[in-house]
Design brief:
three-stranded antiparallel β-sheet, single chain, 9 helices, about 250 residues, globular
């Protein structure tokens, strides 16, 4: 197993469980305890978790993990969500994609389509699509966020104001009926709003672990969202509360 995959699994496990000990992680990953200890120390030094005598515990509340560590979390669900979202995109559409692991999966699902215009502020999505000659790619500039690979801020917002999008797809870090869509960074939230403001249809992509969570910066209330594409683990209670705000829920 590659080190990047191993550390991603460690972070996902510790985040889900709240803590983990060295021996359990070694068994989970099929590596030595010495390897696990080295990985935990590196993750501790990066501020992604807290090293303890026998293992590790989660770091700060609502910590935003860098994108490279989030790819393993809910991977199957995110791929299903992406393919369901791709079916909502008509031929020759102009679509906006904000950054995130699920929107990145959507970009891959759309990569073989022809005639689409894709507007994105995510440099990783742009890097994947730039080699696709049948995709008309527009990259939004701005201030680079290392956690999400997104370009955000006033320059991004101004550039988005010059375009009209048929559909804007955004990822979120939290979604509740009361607080709507939220994310970890204030400037990212502002740029997400610019995507939504300049689109005819607003679609949120979020796996079910994001529902019921509230993070730092508010993107928009649910009344600004037309559709939510999520996975089948969404509880019936959350689904009903979301649909009560006029949002169409698609389960993948």
């Amino acid at each position: 197993m590659l080190k990047a995959d191993r550390t991603a699994r460690i972070l996902a496990h510790v985040t889900e469980a709240g803590s983990a000990d060295v021996h359990a992680l070694a068994e989970l990953l099929d590596v030595s305890t010495a390897t696990v200890r080295r990985d935990l120390q590196e993750l501790h030094d990066q501020g992604l978790l807290h090293r303890t005598r026998g293992g590790a515990v989660t770091g700060p509340v609502n910590l935003e993990l860098p994108l490279r560590h989030r790819g393993e979390k809910q991977r199957d669900e995110k791929r299903r969500i992406a393919h369901a979202a791709a079916r909502l995109v008509p031929d020759n559409a102009v679509i906006g994609l904000s950054g995130g692991t699920t929107t990145s999966e959507l970009a891959r699902a759309l990569a073989d389509r022809s005639g689409l215009t894709i507007v994105t502020n995510a440099v990783n999505i742009a890097a994947e699509l730039i080699v696709r000659p049948d995709i008309h790619l527009v990259v939004i500039g701005g201030i680079a966020r290392t956690a999400s690979y997104e370009l955000v801020g006033p320059a991004a917002d101004r550039m988005l104001s010059h375009y009209h999008l048929d559909i804007a797809f955004i990822g979120v870090d939290g979604l509740t009926p009361e607080e709507g869509c939220t994310t970890h960074d204030e400037m990212e939230a502002q740029t997400d709003r610019a995507f939504l403001r300049n689109s005819t249809r607003s679609i949120v992509l979020a796996d079910s672990t994001k529902t019921g969570k509230i993070t730092f910066a508010r993107i928009c209330p649910l009344t600004d969202v037309h559709d939510l594409v999520t996975d089948t683990d969404l509880s019936e209670t959350h689904k009903q509360a979301i649909t009560n705000h006029g949002v169409k829920v698609h389960l993948a």
